[in-house]
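B., you asked whether I could sanity-check this one before it goes into the benchmark set. Here's the sequence:
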Amino acid sequence: MSQTGPLSSPVAGIRRPRAPGASTTVPSVFRVAWYRAGATFRSRWTGYFSLVLLIGLLGGLAMGSVAAARRTQSSFPTYLASTNPSDVTVASGYDIPPLGLTSGYNPKLIERIYHLTGVERAATYENFDGNVAWVTGLHYDLSSAQTVPRLIGSTDGEFATQDRVTVVAGRMASPHRWDEAVMNAQAASGLGLHIGSVVRLGLYSDAQEKSGYHGKAYRAVQIRLVGIVVFSGSLVQDDFSALSSGQVLLTPALTRELAPCCAYLSFSALRLGGANDVAKVADEASQLIPHGNAVGAEYVTSVTEAKAERAIEPESMALGVFGGIVALAALLIAGQVIGRHLRLGTDELGTLRALGAGPAMTWADGLIGIVGAVVVGSVLAVGVAVALSPLAPLGVVRPVYPARGIAFDWTVLGGGLALLVLGLSAVAAALAYRAQPHRVAFSQRLSRQGASRLAWTAATSGLPLPAAIGFRFAVEPGAGRGATAVRSAIVGAVLAMVVLMATVIFGASLNGLVSHPPLYGWNWNFAMLGGFSGDEDLPAHQTAALLDKDRYVEAWSGANFVSAKLDGQSVPVLTETPGALVAPPLLSGHGLDRSGQIVLGATTLTQLHKRVGQTVVLSNGFTKPRPLLIVGTATMPSIGAGETGTLEMGSGALVATSDFPTPDLNSQASRIPGPNAILIRTRPGASTAAAFHSLEKVNAAINAVPADPGQAGGVVSVLRPAEIVNYRTMGDTPVYLGLGLATGAVIALGLTLVASVRRHRRDLAVLKMLGFTRRQLATAVAWQSSTAVGIGTIVGIPLGTFLGRSLWDVFAHQIDVVPAPSVPALSILLIAAGALVLANFVAALPGQMAARCPTAVLLRAE
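And here's what the prediction gave me:
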């Protein structure tokens, strides 16, 4: 007699009886396994298909997230390279009469700078003294603390061929027309203009500047705004820097006319060749200008690039963390699915062993199909990752990124493909080894012993009979053809809960950081800035008197922005009185108790190779260097306008105001010196709008001082660091990624539950034959599914919470914010309830099918 069906191939391949355990040659094993894969494909293809989809979707989402993280992190260098950037920009002209510098434009000096050793290309732009006389009804609101946009222009290609601006709306102005101009978004927004608007500019000469701008403007022109552009140096910036980043770019035609008469400052952008020392060239350039080392300014492109990359890093890190969670979920959940498929074929393996197949044959059986599904799913994952690539980069660089569209990150794609294929194939091989008939039988005996006790407890606890039977189905693996991989269902539920909880907690913590300013250093409600966004001083006594009387103010502290050197490194510094009521939030140690102490940002502390309790040497350029005791670390606010730039969350220092001499604190030589800013905390429950309106009145009163008008620059609420500004530009992308992960986890859990329920069809048929009604059968199936999910929820929620909090603590430490993980109780309850709803929904279909199917048909199928 000839045999047909799935079991005929082993007999044909083995040819003659063998003792159990006898070995076969590798080619023979491979031929038989290949034939078996083809013969059983029709009955197993749904399982393979679900595995392909699972690996393709979750693996693709993981690779896509990691690739997006890498593309986002490298987005600013890629954009910057497309602008033909200079290496360093140096001041090449000043109009400072007290120092004997009477013009901001000096062609001979510029030419000498162009011929410095190492300079390959150069271009210069000028800053002009000007005012904007706008159309009737428009005015510039200086109470917002913004400064008037700067008027700049170049005649030799700066911003046109070198350090090119990027047009994001409209077009570039014609270089031969003096009546056109472009602006960045900050200037256009501050002026209330749009493309096509016409404004009147009044340009002042150097002579008028020296006489105090008396009389009419030297030159009045009307210009039309024809385009909105982005300057590379101000693309990635914090809110404080944005207050003074408005720029109007004039055409070369108008610049050529205005440069000799009306420039108060010139900057030369230098492109260096080879490995020339940027600092050396900048120092040589400053020495060409009288008093250049005293008043010189320089902007190093690599420093700007590094700051931009630091600002983008939290965003890319979040994407990377999410990708890692998804990758882990893909491996674990796919491993569960693979294990379930292998265990479902245990009966056939026992038959093969009885027919004489050796361990190699039973181990290889089914692996070819699973490995094939793994390979196909991994290739699909690569396709999904490539399809997701146009969504990156994320953040503020995206609108100006020069290479948007489909991208192939072969490092991530190749590594991800290898990880999925090799990792899951290794998992399949290990699970196939454990799925050997004799090992499964031993494992089932142990499982039945513990599960039987649980089932007996449920049966004797007073539960209805359908509920007790459903509970037994969920915890007992059974035996023979009725065996079920109950651990796969339970572990799958645990993994789904862990993944969902970790993602929800990390996402909630990230949203909590964005929406709670004290966590990123803004430990107050409002700040009142001196003129020119904190460059000038507020009158100390008058400001104190007005704020002490304000009914909305609970506490306030004066602050100054200065630059200093700590152990030779330039660091932006915020100064306050020791024991100030309003100060940055501490991460470790304590605040300033007295002079001679210092609180550092965590990054600055690391850069100085110090720790709390040690000392650093402060050099301010005016007094003798002195040691300061490091008493703590803090998350610094993004504020301050020293020569070394603004403070950042992890960078900068808090020092006592008394540790700096008055000339250093009063850099603008204000006639009524005081702090550069007042940090204000309002009373709990106070209306934000009412408090802001009241502080605006204080601001107006200060500006009305006859002795020195215009001292107060304005009142601001929250000035966000560049990291937070950049993250907010991601919009709803994190939500979509989270939904994708949740969908994959839910689908995987659903497939596991459906397979587990279907394995009890024979038991359901027997129960139906014994008199169970359709309702009782459906109830038993629902209890089986709900029990597995309930156990997974009880175990998975604490594990997921721990994982999510741990990931957030590491992330917060990396970006130097206050570590405050958020555990949303309502979301947790909804997830738990949703899991039980899913369990009953998944159980409904097979339960109804089993209830409606005739008993004879079910028993014959088995």
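One thing to flag: The chain has 30 helices and 22 strands. Otherwise nothing jumped out at me.
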